Amino acid sequence: MPVKPQRPCSYPSCPELTNERYCSKHQKEIESKYNKTSRPFKKLYNSRWYKLRKQFLLKHPLCEECKREGVVTAAEVVDHVIPHKGNEQLFWDESNWQSLCKHHHDIKTAKEDGRFGNKNEVYSYPWKKE
């Protein structure tokens, strides 16, 4: 099978040829920047969260949104009712948690993050006037 020709790295002014989007040097740099900016609250989740999450799902095994709709669905995600945005007190407050199926969690998160036509700080552009 023919091999695709190499192309220049997508990093500005990098002449290296690669089969990927970035050369190996710049791929590491891009991944590092992405990890720092895409999940600023990652340290909260890389802690005792997984143990507490598992315990919470054992106590609350059904999706709260599905229950409201009269459907019985197993919960897969522990969601923060009020988004914590890095506030540790709100993050660890168990009264701010709810069990959701992945479908309902994805919908809720998308609405909060500004997708589905809800523009907020996550997807706003400061140079654009609305």
From TrEMBL:
* Record has Hydrolase as a keyword: yes
| Source species of the chain | Clostridium scatologenes
Q: Name one GO cellular component term.
A: cytosol
Q: Does the keyword Phosphoprotein apply?
A: no
Gene3D superfamilies xref list? 1.10.30.50
The HNH nuclease domain sits at 51-106
What is the official name of this protein in its record?
Putative HNH nuclease YajD
Pfam families per the UniProt record, alphabetical? HNH
Q: Which GO terms describe its molecular function?
A: endonuclease activity; hydrolase activity; nucleic acid binding; zinc ion binding
Keywords, A to Z, come to: Hydrolase, Nuclease
According to its UniProt record, which protein family does this protein belong to?
Belongs to the HNH nuclease family.
